[in-house]
Amino acid sequence: MVGRRNSTNVTNFILLGFSEHPQLQGLLFGVFLAIYLMTLSWNLGLITLIRTTSHLHTPMYFFLSHLSFVDICYSSSVVPKMLSDFFKEQKTISLVGCTVQCFVFVDMAGTECCLLAAMAYDRYVAICDPLWYQATMTPTFCAQMVVSAHLGGFLTSLVETSSIFQLRFCGPNVIHHFFCDLPPLLDLSCSNSFISKVVNWLMVFITGGISGLIVLISYLYIITTMVKIRPVKGRSKAFSTCASHLMVVTLFYGTGLFAYLHPSGSHSTNQGKVASVFYGAMIPTLNPIAYSLRNKEIKEALMKLKEAIDQWC
User: Fold this and answer.
1) Domain span at 271
2) N or C: which end of the chain has fewer CB within 10 A?
3) Could you give the 3-state DSSP secondary structure of residue 14?
């Protein structure tokens, strides 16, 4: 089925991954295995810390724990398959497996977009309307925002995946990527993929565009409010609560846009693959670090946990 288009329906795909660098397979396996293990341990550790530390039971950390859960699912939808393929001659994935992988990846990406928007709104209320923070960001409202984020990701993925996998794939079946991503799949279809491409872009605009707009508007209000804060020390404290979130948003949207908006071509395909590695494997690892390094409350919770462990031992 590899090569020219024919009338036979494709039942599996071949993921080229990083096979163009055979001499680096062992090194790349070690690097990505280490990254994945760090993703699991740091995000699980952050979830556990937030759930077991009473003073971290606030809306910001509630959203952060769900972001860590999404990052674990996000990375797990791609990295384990990629790791197993390093030692396979035929890096195949079935049509069903490709559909599931694509669905979970898009679902988690859409959910993360919505969660980042919810976290931006939380920071907006905390800085711009602090007197009403407790009344606005109630546990019920926060839970509703998280459920809405997951629902938004699920519906986005359902529509995008359905629009692509109702297309016909009759060869070639080689995906120049390390997982079943939407753009390369669209290029392999032997059906007219125009409607699927329109649906794909429309869903990206609705989910990514609206959530990005909420983040942008929230930070415009936050910056306007911070400029008015006196003294400078108070302004610095307000900014420190947003710095980690802003860093995560920049990395997530920046690499995502680069991966999906680059022009076609072999060189840009490799660039898109590198960008996909970054937002599919690296960002889930970097998120807990970004929220922990400069976060005084997280550091205090870690110190108390360490003291409790030392006393227990």
Assistant:
1) 12-312
2) C
3) strand
